[in-house]
Amino acid sequence: MRRQPAACKRAASILFLTLLVTLSLAQPVTVTPVGEWPGFQRGSAQAVTVAGGYAYVAAGGVYIFDTSQLSNLAPVGIYATPDARDVVVVGQHAYVADWETGLQIVDVSNPAYPRRVGECSINGRARRLVVRDNYAYVASAPIWDGQSNQGGGLQVIDVSDPTQPRVVGEHTYFNSPCVWCVGCAYDVAVKGNYAFLAEEESQLIRGEPRGTLAAFDISDPTFPWLVTSFDTSSSRAGSVTISGNHAYVGNYNSESGLLILDISNPTAPTQVGGYATFDTVRDVAVVGTHAYLAKYPDQSGDGVGVEVLDVSDPANPVRLGGIGNVWPNFFGRVLAVAEDRLHVAAYSGYWIFDLANPAQPQLAAEYDTAGGGKEVIVSGDIAFLIEGRVGLHTFDISNPSQPVRVGGFRTTGSPGAVAVHQGRAFLTEYGSVVKNAESRVRLQVLDVANPAQPSRLGGCDLGIDGGWGARLAVLGGYAYVASGAQGLHVTDVNDPANPVLVGQYSSDWSVLNVAASQTHVYLIGHREDPSTGQQRRLEVLDVSVPTNPHRIGTYDLPGYAYHLSVLGQQVYSTSGPDGFQVIDVSDPTAPQRIGGVKLKVGQEP
Hints:
By secondary structure, the protein is mainly β. Helices cover 2% and strands 54% of the residues. The protein has two helices and 49 strands. It has a four-stranded antiparallel β-sheet, with no helix packed on it. A four-stranded antiparallel β-sheet has the order 8-9-12-13, with no helix packed on it. Strand 48 and strand 49 (592-597) form a beta hairpin. It is elongated and about 80 Å long.
């Protein structure tokens, strides 16, 4: 696996920046970040564990939730890490598998103020872990260093002194010059003197990647000894959970789905049962006679994210029920069960279900961790941020070095873009929470006069097929929405409670983005040319009569232009590797390039 460039990680982790940029072709521009929120890379929930009345969710950083407060689920504490993948809590410490930084140990005696007390790098990327008897057993993935895969496998870390953790034993895969030719560990479980590793075994061993459950003798933790490896008949064994004398193994891309193995003799596991899911099982939690499977949708398109099985007879598991269609992309990743509640770390966030009826879990609370800042605009001392699938966040930036979230508005679909005009925010959103519903773009109008409590005033369906960003601009009581191949849609928002679609501009070019100024709207158009490939151009529309927008000028843009902004009589547009372009539109019928900057590919700032 290749490492992501550091610049990409920074771009993904910083959700909000306040920038003051003076554009000049003669002088270099220096941009200095002065604040960020939330201070770490957010992402889909990767893991969850429950201890002492608190739930700890690994999602970029570590979120800490008071599980007694389900009516208003929100983190009581957050610990920032570069890329948390798993978290285990023992006593007053949380042990975090933090991908490339290895193991981090955090004091959570005060959940509202977690603090790091120790850290340990490992030979690989930390993915999952178990902590037992002063040792942390870490399942790790290899690192591609540009020439070969390095490390990965099982790492044993002495954590008897949380401030000085140290690797004391390991079993790593051999190095290989082939990107895909080395094994990879996905999960680990411990029983007695044995550690069980769910893994994808090397192509060099079997000719193709195969899922295996490897058993290690850890009676001497400094020398984990491989005693057996069980073929799971899949492309990858992604998870392992132990209950009694049985190991429950979740498989990837396999009809087998769940395998149930008898490990009463750990050196010779035998299969006693299984359950066919026909697709990927990411994790298994077993409580009493019930097993809960976190899974991706099966090949039929079933949206079930968690399945519930009766495993009172391990040789004959029986499906009792499932959870699905709760939210788009509700794909279960990791599960935990505590106090008759099922906690799910899912692609779309953190979910809690009531298990009063174990066969039919009922949603009790949820919190979206997905993150991903799409767009931010500033109006006075307030910044408006479109984030992930959540909706709109509002921030007080009166002190730019310490942005403070003050409010928000959750959309029913995926938010696309935002514009703010005269105390109102205009949002585009697409998709639906209803399974298999047609994905459509909608316009929402919010009252943001009080940024702490945005409230919906009205909205309308724009009649546009969804699935993309739906950029927009607002000018003189009208919202202009870039509609891709469907052109530009014009909506009258003078009555915010009843916005009405009143006009449309059709073009043989797909409309990617839009900006507005005075009586003109500026578009970036895109088309595929059979001889020259992708083409982009700037289009200038006269909207003096908003119901009849018409083109009055164009300018062909180099590269892959997408973003644009208008300042006075200049339009500024990004152009991919061609940097940015400055277009003079003082004569809107004849736009002319007056300058720009071309960057070298990969040029460091």
